[in-house]
From TrEMBL:
Official protein name in the record: HEPN domain-containing protein
Coiled-coil portions: 66-93
The keyword Cell membrane is annotated on this UniProt entry: no
Signal peptide (UniProt feature, chain positions): none
Residue ranges of every copy of the HEPN domain listed in the record: 161-282
Biological source species: Bacteroides thetaiotaomicron
C-alpha cells in the first residue's frame, strides 16, 4: 500500500489529517486506518454540478476510510459517528468532503483476505495507509480469477435483487391504506437497502452491517453518477421524504409518533422504482464485464 497523501490537494490533506487525528484519539484499539476508493485511486471529484435526467445534482467524492481494530467494532462505530459530527462542525465554514467509515476487526479483514474477498484485496492493492500501530499483520490474499468473480457476482445478484423487488411489490400492491403506512415505509426501506446491497455485492462482494440508507447510498454512488440522482435533495419536500425513508427502519416499527402520508409513499415508491431499474442495469453490465474478462483470460 501507498503511505503518503502529499500528492492530494492541500485542502484534502488538511481534512484527512483532522480525521486521522480524531480517529486515533477516540477509537480504542485502532490498529490501521486505510484510505481507499477514489482518493486512493486518483479519480476523485472535488466538486461538480450538473443536470442529469432532468435533476440538478451536486457531487463530490467522499473519503472512503477503513478503520481496523482489534477491539469492539460496535463501540468503534458509535465513536466514529461522533467523530463525523465533530469533523463537520470543524469545517462548517467551508465546503468539505464527507467521510464514509467502515470498521472491521483485524480477524475479519484477514479472514476475508485469505479467501480473496475482493473488496478487501482491492483496498490493500489500491489503498493508502494513513496509520499503522505496527501491532497487527495483514494476511496475504490469493488472487481470484475473473471466472470466480463473475460467478460470485451472478449468485449474489440472483439472490438479492428479487428479494428487493419483492419488498417493493408488497408496498405497491397494498398502498392507500393509511393505517398501514408505517408498515409500508419499513418495507420500502428494506427494498432500498436490499437494492443498495445488491450493487455493493456485485461490484465489491462486500456489504456493511449498516442499515443506514445515507451510508449505503454514499458507498454505491462511486460506481455510477446516476445513483446520485435517485433521491434528489433540492426541495424541503424531497429532503423530508428521504429523511422519512431513512428513519423508517427503526421508527416505523417502534415510534408511535412516526407518520408518513400516502402521497409521500407514492413519491418514494417512484424513486425506489428508479433505483430498482438502475440496479438491474448496472449490475448486469458489471456481470457482463466480468464474463468478458473471464472468457478473454
Amino acid at each position: 500500500m501507498k503511505k503518503s497523501i502529499k500528492h492530494l490537494p492541500k485542502r484534502t490533506q488538511e481534512e484527512l489529517t483532522v480525521l486521522l487525528d480524531l480517529v486515533c484519539k477516540s477509537v480504542d484499539n485502532c490498529q490501521m486506518i486505510i484510505l481507499f476508493g477514489s482518493y486512493a485511486r486518483g479519480n476523485y471529484v472535488l466538486w461538480d454540478t450538473k443536470i442529469e435526467f432532468g435533476v440538478r445534482t451536486s457531487y463530490q467524492s467522499d473519503y472512503d476510510i477503513l478503520v481496523i481494530t482489534n477491539g469492539a467494532v460496535k463501540r468503534a462505530e458509535r465513536k466514529l459517528e461522533r467523530i463525523t459530527n465533530k469533523y463537520h462542525d470543524l469545517f462548517e465554514y467551508r465546503r468539505h468532503a464527507f467521510p464514509q467509515f467502515i470498521v472491521e476487526h483485524i480477524n475479519t479483514v484477514n479472514n476475508n483476505l485469505e479467501v480473496s474477498q475482493y473488496f478487501f484485496t482491492d483496498i490493500i492493492k489500491e489503498g493508502i495507509l494513513l496509520y499503522d500501530s505496527g501491532k497487527c499483520q495483514l494476511a496475504k490474499p490469493r488472487k481470484l480469477s475473473f471466472r470466480e468473480i463473475r460467478d460470485i457476482a451472478q449468485n449474489e445478484f440472483s439472490e438479492l435483487y428479487p428479494y428487493a423487488c419483492g419488498f417493493l411489490d408488497l408496498v405497491k400492491l397494498s398502498l392507500h391504506n393509511d393505517q398501514r403506512n408505517k408498515i409500508f415505509a419499513f418495507l420500502l426501506h428494506q427494498a432500498c437497502e436490499k437494492l443498495y446491497n445488491t450493487i455493493l455485492m456485485v461490484f465489491t462482494n462486500y456489504r456493511p452491517k449498516s442499515h443506514r440508507l445515507q451510508d449505503l447510498g454514499g458507498m454505491v454512488k462511486r460506481f455510477s453518477m446516476e445513483l446520485v440522482t435517485v433521491f434528489p435533495q433540492n426541495t424541503d419536500g424531497e429532503k423530508e421524504c428521504f429523511n422519512l425513508l431513512c428513519r423508517a427502519y427503526i421508527e416505523a416499527r417502534y415510534n408511535k409518533d412516526y407518520k408518513i402520508t400516502s402521497e409521500q409513499l407514492e413519491y418514494l415508491i417512484a424513486r425506489v422504482e428508479i433505483l430498482k431499474d438502475m440496479t438491474e442495469r448496472l449490475c448486469k453490465e458489471k456481470i457482463a464485464e466480468y464474463n468478458a474478462m473471464a472468457e478473454n483470460g
